[in-house]
Amino acid sequence: MIHSLFLVNSSGDIFLEKHWKSVVSRSVCDYFFEAQERASEPENVPPVIPTPHHYLISVLRHRIYFVAVIQSEVPPLFVIEFLHRVVDTFQDYFGVCTEAAIKDNVVVVYELLEEMLDNGFPLATESNILKELIKPPTILRTVVNTITGSTNVGEQLPTGQLSVVPWRRTGVKYTNNEAYFDVVEEIDAIIDKSGSTITAEIQGVIDACVKLTGMPDLTLSFMNPRLLDDVSFHPCVRFKRWEAERILSFIPPDGNFRLLSYHVSSQNLHPLRSASLVAIPVYVKHNITFREGSSQGRFELTLGPKQTMGKGVEAVLVSSQLPRGVLNTNLNPTQGTYTFDPVTKLLSWDVGKINPQKLPSLKGSMSLQAGASKPDENPTINIQFKIQQSALSGLKVNRLDMYGEKYKPFKGIKYMTKAGKFQVRT
Amino acid sequence: MEWANQLCENRQFGSKMTDSKYFTTTKKGEIFELKAELNSDKKEKKKEAVKKVIASMTVGKDVSALFPDVVNCMQTDNLELKKLVYLYLMNYAKSQPDMAIMAVNTFVKDCEDANPLIRALAVRTMGCIRVDKITEYLCEPLRKCLKDEDPYVRKTAAVCVAKLHDINAQLVEDQGFLDTLKDLISDSNPMVVANAVAALSEIAESHPNSNLLDLNPQSINKLLTALNECTEWGQIFILDCLANYTPRDDRESQSICERVTPRLSHANSAVVLSAVKVLMKFMEMLPKDLDYYGTLLKKLAPPLVTLLSAEPELQYVALRNINLIVQKRPEILKHEMKVFFVKYNDPIYVKLEKLDIMIRLASQANIAQVLAELKEYATEVDVDFVRKAVRAIGRCAIKVEQSAERCVSTLLDLIQTKVNYVVQEAIVVIKDIFRKYPNKYESVIATLCENLDSLDEPEARAAMIWIVGEYAERIDNADELLESFLEGFHDESTQVQLQLLTAIVKLFLKKPTETQELVQQVLSLATQDSDNPDLRDRGYIYWRLLSTDPVAAKEVVLAEKPLISEETDLIEPTLLEELICHIGTLASVYHKPPSAFVEGSRGVMHKRLPARTGSGESTESPDVGTAAGGSAPEAAPSIIPSQGDLLGDLLNLDMAPPTTTGPPPPNTGMQMGGMDLLGGGLDSLMGDESEPLGGDIGGSPAMGAGFGAAPAVMPASLNAPVGGGLGDLFDLGGGVGMPMGAYIPPKTVWLPAMKAKGLEISGTFARRAGVIQMELILTNKAMSVMTDFAIQFNRNSFGLAPAGPLQVLTPLGPNQTIEVSLPLSTVGPVMKMDPLNNLQVAVKNNIDVFYFSCQYPISMLFVEDGKMERQVFLATWKDIPNDNESQFQIKDCHLNSDAASSKLQGSNIFTIAKRTVEGQDMLYMSIKLSNGIWVLAELRVQAGNPNYTISLKCRAPEVSQCVFQCYEAVLKN
Q1: Which fold has domain B862-972?
Q2: Ranges for the Beta-adaptin appendage C-terminal subdomain domain (chain B) (predicted)?
């Protein structure tokens, strides 16, 4: 099982270590540092590194490497999932997961890690339970504790830990009972030079914020549940009911949680039309050229809305890694602001909203090193955007019902589409 | 007040009241100050002090000196303070064992506390204190806690057993904790069950043979019930445990699959992958025609695809496992090619894995898409990735024949980019394409030649040289091209040197007139100026071949090349099966068997997929052949992986020894002196080759014989320098051979004197140093002198023919005996005999001609390069239909498997792999006959049982009987 954990910052210092079994010397991280040095980019460090006596399994989050040390055969995904859970917990507790935040709360961090694993076995990883055991720090509580001498460690056995619904604590009380659901879809796509779609798929999630008194039992049904044939559920969802009736039935955890995530690929959207695709909401017209022997290159980029179901495309951000040979750019955006970093060669253009009547464009020239041959690689354009009040796949919630409690909760459902890894090749 | 001052300082710097304050005490008297604070009367101050101590500890500062002071704070009813002290204790107890005893009392007391949280905390912490003295005190509280009324305490205690076992295994066994733990598998609480399973699994890892997790249908049912109710982590433990179970029949298998399938929709990817493991293993038992089997296959694809939308680290592990899954069951993901397309900002480790899987999934249906993608990748920035992408295009060409042309043109486009490393990679793969599809794409050679100068990597240079040599007759200036490489010959890497040598020899054989000087130059560079033994040996072999028998040289050097296999890096099926049983583990990430991971003494049981019970097939051993659908239907005669082809030319030597069937020429000295070494050879090369070789090849047949028969008759009149060289060569003749010890049957009388007017012939066959010999004893039992001996063979099954004359130099007087050995070649006329190894011989002397027949052991036809590559072996084993398999028993053999293996090796029966299953050793062996027939064998040796079972598989099943006889003969002698 998980032996030890080291937290390493971007400059390669170990700033926290935790051992769940015997102490493993810090020097084991030297193997990690070696791999880190070999990697061209921070994210290229391989996630599993063998050393003579241990294995190092790491994840990189918020520019911190979480390096777990294991000694025997342990499923690597188990370790990686656990590390993600650690990151999520820190974020949940401290708002951000940064080196400063961790150092600021080092004792809470230590208590948390101790509570999450016992002898390398996961103990309590549900945020609901952890928060009962160890209260998240707030400025108010710190002040109160200092004055009254009370503690931020719970005195009671966490109630949820042994019930049949371990994700929910008992005795929850709210004056305003509310349940909000966000259907968020991210579209991943690769568009080729000519504008045709190579791959497009949707990663969707339904995130919930449920603040309901008592033990509510919820059911959520969809207008078009057929879309969801590749889904991952929160443990609270009753799988049998879903299999039989395509209805989500569950006792929700208290507070924020991810109810389900799903995946829609171009195939399962329209099972009958084999070549049909996930609707692509924006298009890009581009002309990026370098001529042999000239120290100038042309750069033209125009964005436009495509299939957006009548909703506006906003928060558009275009970025592109230009070839190394580009020294600088001289471009004019019709709207928004653009920056070019001559060191990293990263071009980024904050477009904002796309106005279908007046399409945003970015045009101008790039200056190249004099006398150098024209760059070999073609830059890829990365686009981010948001479309409010619409889920691209067309997924729609039909109704939400509550059983088991008497009060009338306030219910709300929001839809949003975002670009995930949306890439246009040139 | 120091503390308050600091607080104020922090405030001044605008910092919040946070734990970072604990890091600020870096002054000299730090420890001293903390000590004072720890002993303070005020609770609050104590707690703050302990927090400071913990903070120092987390950053690796040594605060062990405070041990007694911190332990003093332990007796408190403040839970937070207690926890903090426990944290400290766990870290430092080992360095202060005597002090740690002080804490025991509190622990024991806490284990009786009314609050289950305190009880659990105490037993948990105690287990983390790795001090022998403390563990003794732990036993009693632990026993109580294992039976505690509160499941939270029980579940904590279960883990504590694993902790204790890690510290003192004997103690745990003596105290009977293992049995208590086993009982917990039947606990009413699913969390307790999950933790008990986890603890037992961890303990079992250090006891490979103990029967800790005794799985039976009842306990499986308990586990499956707990599976639905326990936490995600518990589900992982239970699923991994389930994967070790072997269901009794396909119905039980199906019912387990049905109950595991819902886990595929879990949000935790580790749960998903563990469920995939269970399903992949158990579906092996389901009959393929079952509807449920198809349903299950369909259900597996979506969760695997979903794993690829997770974080890159998860993707990496998932991809490594998918790589195994697509090798085992390509049908699962065959429609999901697109999800493996590479995004430009994927980390490099994800990109490379995706690429690998893309090639595995490439088929005629999707090849166009794949190629378009690969071409796109070839323009990316990352050099490693680009190289692999270019290589992938070549692999596609070899894998999907219909796409070969498109691949070649894509490669040509890439060569036009003139990006140095792209060009080099492209040339390397084009060489493989030429190998696979000879005489199809030569039109591109001109383009390749344009890039000759830009090649600076040995592999690319060697590939280019190979192409020039192979197609020398179509490249007008081949000689100039090769000559240009020759200038810096000694600076080239060995790979390039060897290739250059071979290429120039090929060129010479194709265009003898213009290139004689060139070939002499390269031969002398290789043999006289080089220190590299490989190069020198190859040089001498060519030199010899060219000087003795240019026609044979042509046959050898320009021989048809063995095919290259489609996929070069398939995991061999037995390993693949084992890895499928370990999906989701480190073994699956590294694609190595788990035994390669576990340290030292801990043994690991090899896992195998269960056999299908429904279908009633009794396929033994590599039974994957029946499982993996539709692979490689065409029968390939002999396949070697493409990497081996640099040596291919050299290996061919053994397959085609010189043919010299002409009459014996006068055995005069060899005319190899000086630079005119090729004189004779050249004439015959340019003459009509179809004519039988006359005696005008100066001295060569004798050489041919001498080469084989070891330096028995070395003329003394050799020129000194060449003689030295030849000496080397003869050494080579003796040294190339395998360690002696090939089985030679005892001599028997073939021709009794009565039947042959007084000539008695007895003899045997042997293979010495790669040359087949007929060893004869001729005895003259007549009254008169016998002279003018000659020998001839009738046509026979393997084309055996004398490679030289029967060397009876002196007349054989009455009652005289002479021993002669006659080298044999296998290039004579072929006719199938019955029995297969029958040989009819005619011996002539001055009296008469006599006929007799004898049987040779087929083992003398086993050639030295009969060791197959493992992957090739497995592919071939699969390819050969089961009908061609025959089984034999070898009785009363008392060798162990290793002794048997080395004994067989002496006769060129090569053991490729050995596996031990349930005390039975399985040896996988390959044999290659001189006519290129491969025989694959599986020998099963059970310890203590003198009867071996042998299964033989061969495309020509007729030989099996003879091969079996050889096994028997070799093993029993």
Answers
A1: TATA-Binding Protein (3.30.310)
A2: 862-972
Contacts of A265 in chain B (CB under 8 A): 305, 338-339
φ, ψ for residue B18 (rounded to 5)? -130, 175
Say yes or no for a CB contact (<8 Å) between B268 and A81: yes
Query: Which amino acid is residue A365, in one-letter code?
Result: S
CATH of B748-856, one of 3.40.800.20, 3.40.50.720, 2.60.40.1150, 3.30.870.10: 2.60.40.1150
A178-276+396-413: CATH class: mainly beta
Closest partner residue to A153 (CB to CB) among B83, B373, B585 is B83
What residue type is A162 in one-letter code?
A: L
B115 close contact with A: CB closer than 8 A: yes
Query: What pTM does this model have?
Result: 0.68
* A374-416 residue pLDDT tens: 777 778 899 999 999 888 888 899 999 999 888 999 999 999 9
Prediction ipTM score: 0.83
Pairing of strands A296-305, A282-290: antiparallel
Contacts of B143 (CB under 8 A, 6+ apart): B175, B177, B180
Nearest to B313 among A21, A59, A104 (CB): A59
What is the pLDDT at residue B628? 37
For A2-148, which CATH class?
alpha beta
List chain A domain ranges: 2-148, 178-276+396-413, 282-388
Q: Virtual CA dihedral for B23, B27, B33, B35, nearest 10 degrees?
A: 70
Contact A232 B127 (CB under 8 A): no
- Intrachain domains A2-148 and A178-276+396-413 with the same fold: no
Tokens of B861: 């036809």
Contacts of A105 in chain B (CB under 8 A): 18-19
Residue bearing tokens 């820190």: A90
**CB proximity list for B952: less than 8 A, separation 6 or greater:** B885, B886, B887, B888, B935, B936, B937, B960, B963, B964
Whether B19 sits inside 8 A of A108 (CB atoms) is: yes
**For residue B920, which phi and psi values (nearest 5 degrees)?**
-105, 125
Closest-CA residue of chain A to B131: A22
Residues of A in contact with B87 (CB under 8 A): 110-111, 114
Question: Which of chain A's residues have a Cβ under 8 Å away from the Cβ of B584?
Answer: 75-78
| pLDDT value at residue B678 | 45
Inter-chain touch A232–B152, beta carbons under 8 Å:
no
CB B806 within 8 A of CB B760: no
User: Chain A residues with CB inside 8 Å of B231's CB?
Assistant: 122, 125-126, 166, 235
> Regarding the domain delimited by A282-388, which CATH topology (the fold level of the hierarchy) does it fall under?
Immunoglobulin-like (2.60.40)
Cβ contact, residue pair B87, A198, below 8 Å: no
User: How many CB pairs below 8 A link A and B?
Assistant: 256
CA distance B743 to B859: 8
User: Cβ contacts of residue B294 below 8 Å, gap of 6+?
Assistant: none
Encode chain A (426 residues) as per-residue pLDDT tens digits. 898 999 999 888 898 888 888 788 889 999 999 999 888 888 889 999 988 888 999 999 999 999 999 988 889 999 999 999 999 999 988 888 999 999 888 888 988 998 898 888 888 888 877 887 787 776 555 555 555 555 555 555 555 555 667 778 777 888 899 999 999 999 988 888 888 888 888 899 999 999 999 889 999 999 988 888 788 888 888 888 998 899 999 999 888 889 999 988 765 444 444 334 578 888 899 888 887 777 788 889 999 988 777 788 999 999 998 888 888 889 999 999 999 998 888 999 999 998 888 899 999 988 888 777 777 777 889 999 999 988 888 889 999 999 988 899 999 999 999 998 899 988
State the nearest Cα–Cα gap between A73 and chain B, in angstroms. 6
d(CA A423, CA A384): 9
